[in-house]
Write a structure and sequence with these properties.
alpha/beta, TIM Barrel, eight-stranded parallel sheet, two-stranded antiparallel sheet, 10 strands, globular, hydrolase, zinc
Length: about 375
């Protein structure tokens, strides 16, 4: 994996797959400002440009707990159906403009009921927005978007949200997730929800190994049966580099690699939460070299001031990745999507592989 850093325009034109993106972490600053004004919610700053900087700087603290506090403002302005629909529509438009061809966007319905919406109404509002966004993308920018319904790990509604995900799985919901502060809230607290999902043949991912270490990953996989790991950065703690440069994998790391368990990594977000010291030192580099099932993601585009293009360009600059490497990350992600096999294959063969053919993105 070597070569000159890739040009941002080339990367933007290349098809990309996004598995880990939070709806309430990807709002446009101007939308936050407008929605806040409509409901009288007080923001730290009013100007959209200044607001965007505030979100990035507030999240750039090195603390996951502080990082999560920035969501108080985005969640506050997403309490009405019209707001949820708008945010969802704009999310799809922004992803399509960035060259994303498939996305799973996660959000926690339980956090959007303060103004009287039911769980079903909230999910329906987001689904409407996604469908409007797909229709609006146009200009040949094909995109498929699915919801992931998240339960908050410090609350006690995971079974209810798991049942909601199953009820909506043929209507735009691809799977289930738990999120929130890891420390003190292990995934096994929600074991009944995960067992229910397994009985229903449903897909789920678990935030694990971001702010907490190997026990969180081990529980997510071996107790809860996660299909994917949200971040999973700390799996690096189970890998030792010998004096001669040889990597020795512990039993958990070996299992994760052997089973091809996808790692939903988000480099810029991981820097902000303290899970990595720099892009060049991000565990993604070694894990990619060792051929773990690594995927590249944005996590929270507003808080990290990022996009899939920015993430991939930064990785190209840090590790010398070329288009073949980005194609590998993209196919990894598409293989790992919570989409039926034939639909995944159609996107890989019909969209992703042709999209990385040389020269990338050349128009006819």
């Amino acid at each position: 994996m070597a070569g000159n850093p890739l040009d941002a325009d080339v990367v933007r034109r290349a098809p990309k797959v996004l598995l880990h993106d939070h709806l309430d972490g990807g709002l446009r600053p101007a939308t936050v400002a407008e929605l806040a004004a409509e409901i009288g919610h007080k923001l730290p700053v009013a100007d959209p440009a200044d607001l965007g900087r505030w979100f990035r700087e507030a999240a750039d603290s090195g603390s996951l707990v502080r990082y999560l506090e920035t969501f108080d403002h985005t969640v506050a302005v997403m309490q009405h159906a019209s707001a949820l629909t708008r945010v969802a529509r704009e999310c799809v438009e922004d992803l399509a403009a960035d060259g994303v061809v498939y996305a799973e966007v996660r959000w926690a319905p339980e956090q959007h009921l303060q103004q009287g919406l039911t769980l079903d109404e909230a999910v329906a509002a987001v689904q409407q927005g996604f469908e409007e966004g797909v229709a609006a993308a146009g200009n040949g920018q094909r995109i498929v978007v699915r919801q992931l319904l998240t339960a908050m790990r410090h609350q006690a509604r995971s079974m209810e949200i798991a049942e909601l995900a199953v009820a909506w799985r043929d209507r735009g919901v691809a799977g289930f997730d738990i999120a929130g502060a890891e420390a003190g809230f292990p995934p096994t607290r929600h074991l009944d929800a995960f067992e229910y999902l397994q009985r229903e043949n449903a897909h789920f991912t678990i935030h694990a190994g971001e702010a907490f270490g190997l026990p969180s990953i081990w529980q997510a996989i071996q107790w809860c049966g996660a299909d994917r790991l949200g971040h999973g950065v700390r799996i690096i703690d189970d890998i030792t580099i010998d004096a001669d440069g040889t990597a020795e994998l512990g039993r958990l790391a070996q299992y994760v690699r052997d089973k091809r368990i996808p790692l939903e990594m988000a480099p810029f977000s991981n820097l902000q939460t303290g899970a990595a010291a720099s892009i060049a030192e991000h565990p993604l580099g070694l894990l990619t070299q060792l051929r773990f099932r690594v995927t590249v993601n944005t996590d929270n585009r507003l808080m990290s001031d990022t996009s899939m293009t920015k993430e991939m360009v930064a990785l190209s600059e840090a590790f010398g990745y070329d288009l073949d490497d980005l194609r590998w990350f993209t196919i990894n992600a598409m293989k790992s999507a919570f989409l039926p096999f034939e639909e995944r294959l159609a996107l890989i063969d019909g969209v992703i592989k042709p999209g990385y053919a040389s020269p990338v993105g050349e128009t006819t």
